[in-house]
């Protein structure tokens, strides 16, 4: 601390950036090596997250599916294409001011729901990602992301349409794109949620 006080603001900033880069590197090593829950046994690879590491927007989903497990990237396949189209409709692109991650980094077998113990073991990875990205807005997509980040068991329907907070960061709840593929009638609600998210970010620059 005393050593820090003698540094110019530029050097202090440089040190903070270096410390952050070091934490990213550590986290990117820790996740692929993680065996904290049983899901590590069935994974092809972990799915860390993708995008702009200094993004204003952080989108959080549930867990990798088969394609994500194969390719190592979240939200690929049909649900990913839907998400990309929805982002494009509000002028956003994957990787440009947007970061996408899941609550779980390994695929649950048969795409079953995450179990509470798995969520508890994996959430620290997501928490570290959020600390490092420092997003201005979080969009929780689906029940597991919303319930995990908000520490609630409330339904998506009851959580939508309000600004929640995660560690002080505005958080909007919406449907998971995979759910929207099966429930086309709710697409318009997800669209409303994204517009609400955009307006929320504009009001909290
Ligand atoms: Fe580790 Fe998460 Fe994979 Fe479980 S799901 S092994 S906690 S990275």
Low-pLDDT segments:
none
Q: List the secondary-structure elements in sequence, H or E.
A: HHEEHHEHEHHEEHH
- Mean pLDDT across residues: 93
User: What summary fits the major beta sheet?
Assistant: 6 strands, mixed
Percent helix, as a range, is 40-55%
How far is the first residue's CA from the last residue's CA? 31 Å
Ligand roster:
iron/sulfur cluster
Secondary structure class reads: alpha/beta
Question: How would you summarize the topology of this molecule?
Answer:
Layout: H1 2-5, H2 9-33, E1 50-51, E2 57-61, H3 66-71, H4 77-89, E3 98-102, H5 116-133, E4 137-141, H6 143-150, H7 156-159, E5 164-166, E6 169-174, H8 177-182, H9 187-203
Parallel strand pairs: 2-3, 2-4, 4-6
Antiparallel strand pairs: 1-3, 5-6
The structure holds iron/sulfur cluster (SF4).
Iron/sulfur cluster binds at residues 31, 34-37, 39-40, 46, 104-106, 118, 121-122, 125.
Salient structural properties:
205 residues, alpha/beta, six-stranded mixed β-sheet, 9 helices, binds iron/sulfur cluster
Question: How would you describe this protein?
Answer:
The protein has 205 residues and is α/β, with parallel strands linked by helices. It is built from 9 helices and 6 strands, in the order ααββααβαβααββαα. It has helices at residues 2-5, 9-33, 66-71, 77-89, 116-133, 143-150, 156-159, 177-182, 187-203; strands at residues 50-51, 57-61, 98-102, 137-141, 164-166, 169-174. Helix 2 (9-33) runs antiparallel to helix 5. The mean pLDDT is 93. The structure holds iron/sulfur cluster. Iron/sulfur cluster is lined by residues 31, 34-37, 39-40, 46, 104-106, 118, 121-122, 125.
């Amino acid at each position: 601390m005393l050593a820090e006080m003698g540094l110019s603001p530029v050097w202090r900033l440089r040190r903070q950036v270096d410390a952050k880069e070091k934490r990213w590197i550590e986290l990117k090593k820790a996740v692929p090596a993680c065996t904290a829950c049983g899901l590590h046994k069935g994974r092809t690879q972990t799915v860390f997250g993708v995008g702009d590491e200094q993004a204003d927007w952080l989108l959080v989903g549930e867990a990798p599916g088969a394609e994500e497990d194969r390719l190592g990237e979240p939200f690929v396949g049909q649900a990913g294409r839907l998400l990309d189209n929805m982002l494009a409709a509000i002028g956003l692109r994957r990787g440009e001011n947007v970061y996408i991650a899941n609550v779980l980094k390994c695929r649950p077998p048969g795409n079953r729901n995450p179990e509470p113990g798995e969520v508890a073991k994996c959430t620290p990875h997501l928490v570290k990602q959020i600390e490092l990205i420092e997003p201005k807005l979080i969009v929780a997509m689906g029940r597991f992301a919303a319930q995990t980040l908000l520490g609630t068991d409330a339904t998506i329907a009851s959580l939508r349409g309000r600004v929640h907070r995660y560690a002080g960061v505005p958080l909007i709840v919406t449907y998971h794109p995979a759910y929207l593929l099966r429930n086309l009638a709710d697409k318009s609600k997800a669209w409303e949620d994204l517009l609400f998210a955009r307006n929320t970010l504009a009001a909290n620059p």
